[in-house]
Structure formats: C-alpha cells, structure tokens
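Input/output pair, single chain:
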Amino acid sequence: VENTCSLNIYERFAHRCIVEKNRFGGGSVMVWVGIMGNLKTDLVVVQGNMNAQHYVADVLNAHALPFIRQHGPGVTLMHDNARPHVARVTTQFLQQNNVNVIPWPAVSPDLNPIEHIWDQLGRKARANHQIDNVRDLTQALQQEWRNLPNALILRYVTSMRRRIIACIHANGGHTRY
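Output:
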C-alpha cells in the first residue's frame, strides 16, 4: 500500500489517497543462508511455516550443522531471537551437537550483518530480474545469492566489531548502521 497524499493525518488514509500495489505479483518466499568470513552456504528455500521442529530438522541439521562441522571447530552460530531460534527443542539440539551460540540482544537487526546482505540480495534480484510470481522470486534470489561476491560477505562480517562498538558508544541507541 502506498500513500499518495500528504495533506493531513486524517486525509492521508482516505480511500482516494491510497494506491494498493502487490510487489513481485504478491506472495513471498522464506529463505535461509549461513555466512562465515568470506564463506556462504547454499540458499535454502524454506517450505511451509517455520516452527522450531522445522528449523531444527530442515535448516540446522540439514544445512547449518554440516557447514559448522566442515569449517569448525570454534564456529559460533548467530541467529536472532525468533521463536524457532530460541525454542527449547532448538537450544537442546544445539547443546547436544556442541554448537556455540552467541547471545543476541532483542530488536537489534542493525547489528546483524545478514540483514544488510538480505538488503543487497533483494536489490540485486529486483534490478536484474523480471519478477512476476513466487517462482520468479525464488529463482532470482537463488541466482543472485550464487553471484553475490564472497568479498561482500566478508566486508559485512568484519564490520561486526565496528557495529558493536558503535552500539556500545550509543548506549544501545541508534547507530549509523
């Protein structure tokens, strides 16, 4: 939904001031990726609703754990505080498999380098592909993920230290990131 009026707070929600748009022909796709240094996993298209059991079986066990084992030891998993990530079944699975997890503050996507990579991925998909439906979107994301330079991933990963320091200096407030 796009607001086409900027008159006053009441009028901007009037029917004549609203233009509805479906981006990518409507619909969405849920994906998962892992990054480490200048390495990346394959892009995984998540089917159905994500719950803890689905996250453990189809993401962690199938993709994250093999990647961690291949590039470990000492690899630390960073995921946010989404319910499937912090559910008991997930934390038990990670403990049983000796996966270190970094504690993550609530509501802090600006600190997470993957959020900036998602932004880059979305921009490239929109700029380089005609996207009319979910299938087109999925194919565009997969292609752009394969083409995303590992150096870009490394740049965002190495910026973590600066992001955290900036957050500390801002007493947990907003930063330029």
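DSSP finds seven helices and eight strands in the chain. The chain has a mean pLDDT of 83.
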